[in-house]
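Forgive a beginner's question, but might I ask you for the amino acids of a protein and the tokens describing how it folds?
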Amino acid sequence: MRAYLELTKPRISLLFAITGLAALVVEGSLSFGMWTPWILVLAIFLVGGSANAFNQYFERDIDAQMERTAQKRPLPLRKISPLAALSFSVGIGVVGLSLLFYFANGSILAFLLGLFTILFYSFYYTLWLKPRTSYNIVMGGAAGAMGPLIGWAAVTGTVGWEAWVMFLIIFFWTPPHFWALALYHKEDYEKVSLPMLPLVKGDEETRKQIFYYSLVLVPISLSLFLSHALSLFYVLSALGLGIFFVWFSFRLYSEKTLLLARRLFGYSIAYLMLLFLVMIVDGLV
């Protein structure tokens, strides 16, 4: 069971579900004494988990060659078979999409957004974008940013501007997050001939792009203050978290050490998790 859970990249899928939950809270039309919101959050987790499981199925040979993944992921470790992994990927995807179709508020938009997430990440990003362009993670980041759109569409049948801002937060967060990872695992990516930005454009350009993206990220996150559901508490929290993000990015750009790349990668995960938890808390109180 643990091997199957690892196929979903559970921490990433949980973060994906939390971003969807934040959209449900900020939108504000559902009572959290009901089961429906939690079923929708589960559906969003399963959609993200399916996309991640497909990704691991398709990249099982690459993962077996990379030091970062060879001793961690279930397929290279042969804890489950490729056929079982493929069946699991399809199965949880069908369950997640079925829940979105059945429990969404009279609209198939959430279902379609969930289907797009799985197909875009699993096939377009994993099989086509990733091996072909150094900006794979920029375009592929759209899939990881779909959680708020799915959550908002599930309760309204449309997508509000706040959900699009949440989408943009994740979209602009994704490149510095993964490029920091690519900096200190550059040899792994070189080994399997994946054109990550540090290999194609060099470390200096990668650090510069990380800093630029972090600068854009902060004002986008602050624009959610215009939402009626959020208060000054969110603004101050987003500003503080964002200042640390920019500070880490600037230090990486100026000091140029792999240790700072690793620390920025770790902080970026905490940043996104805390930012969306602040949205949830502020929207509920």
